[in-house]
Design goal:
Elements (H helix, E strand, L loop, with lengths): L3 H15 L4 E2 L14 H22 L7 H7 L6 H17 L9 E9 L5 E12 L3 E14 L2 E5 L4
Parallel strand pairs: 1-4
Antiparallel strand pairs: 2-3, 3-4, 4-5
Length: 160
């Protein structure tokens, strides 16, 4: 019995480590081209889009994704209720798959933003951290699509 105990601890440790793999979506921003937009317009749009993306993820920070309060809080970032529901379904599923504790965002970082030459669509890199098993942090790296409308930049959810 005493001999088996270290092996049991080793097996449990290896199982925990195996479930903590970091994955990256294979979407790339370098496939988009930025020429064609005036320099000042790109900076303004990029700044506005960064503020919108950060606002969305700040609304989700340390809040459970599937609660009614959270759903109401993020409604302004989507053109319609269907897109908001799709976003919640996609990310709730992803958080469960990655075993995020309580399915909430611990921390986030908005990275590179690339606006397409037409100035209507953009790709935004976002890294999301969550806790798993109360101690380990896990991150998800995503490239999200945003669309410029009359109401500003709106998130377009897509399953990766």
């Amino acid at each position: 019995m005493k001999r088996a105990l270290p092996y049991l601890f080793l097996c449990v440790f290896l199982l925990l480590c195996a479930s903590c793999t970091v994955t990256t979506t294979n979407l790339r921003l370098d496939q988009l081209n930025e020429p064609g937009l005036p320099e000042n317009e790109t900076v303004d749009d990029s700044t506005a889009l960064r503020a919108r993306a950060e606002g969305l993820w700040q609304s989700l920070e340390k809040a459970k994704l599937t609660t009614y309060i959270t759903k109401d809080r993020i409604a302004g970032y989507f053109e319609n209720e269907q897109e908001r529901s799709d976003f919640i379904a996609i990310y709730a599923s992803m958080f469960r798959e990655k075993r995020f504790e309580r399915e909430y965002v611990q921390k986030f970082q908005v990275g590179k933003i690339v606006i397409e030459p037409n100035g209507v669509l953009a790709k935004v890199e976002v890294t999301i951290w969550g806790k798993i098993y109360f101690i380990w942090r896990h991150r998800i790296h995503e490239v999200q699509t945003w669309k410029k409308t009359d109401g500003g930049w709106m998130m377009k959810p897509q399953a990766s």
